[in-house]
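Objective 1b of the project was to move from sequence-level analysis to a structural picture of ligand recognition. The entry below was assembled by the postdoctoral researcher (A.K.) and checked by the PI before modelling. It contains the amino acid sequence of the target and the SMILES of the bound compound, molybdenum atom.
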Amino acid sequence: MAIVNRGFVGRRDRMADRLPPGQYSTLDFPVLSAEPTPALPHDKWRLTIQSSDHRAHSLDWPQFTALPHEDVTTDIHCVTRWSKFDTRWRGVSFDDLLATLPWQPDDFVMAHCYGGYTTNVPLDDLTGGKAWLADTFDGEPLAPEHGGPVRLLVPHLYFWKSAKWVRRLRFMPSDTPGFWEERGYHIYGDPWREQRYA
Ligand SMILES: Nc1nc2c(c(=O)[nH]1)N[C@H]1C(S)=C(S)[C@@H](COP(=O)(O)O)O[C@H]1N2
Ligand SMILES: [Mo]
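Corresponding predicted holo structure:
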């Protein structure tokens, strides 16, 4: 006799809909860093936004924390095949950050990190409520190993696009590969189309 627990099956099906092809879901939060975790005291931290014609606009920690913050609950997907559902973040939306700019941004962004990591994202994938500069995870200040004090959060792309310890957002007129993209990862990285490698 088959015993079917409908509640459980239904839940599993809904979860399966949220899992991109080739991924498994985990409750862990693995740490993946190409570089050692940098020490970034708040009084030394700066975020610089740079235009393609070398205009620059910097925010220090008090200026960053004064920007509007919002809560975000989202699934994240790492190219090494783990996905984590319902991660809880707080941060500044890219839209609100852009609103502080005195000039028009170009169509592509290179995120540069303390430590040297880089990753490229089209501006369209950062605007419209799709990306944040996160400073809080699960109600706590973002831990250094996960990119604190501030990381990029672009949950609809593979998680390598979510640059930890972000230091500079450099606008570019054309799409240029970052650290992993130069080493064979896909230039765009959509988990639903399994764009893992170039
Ligand atoms: N600065 C920096 N950002 C980074 C990375 C990195 O090595 N350095 N790794 C990327 C990769 S491949 C992933 S999967 C996620 C991992 O984030 P986590 O360590 O918080 O899980 O960060 C991304 N951002
Ligand atoms: Mo990754």
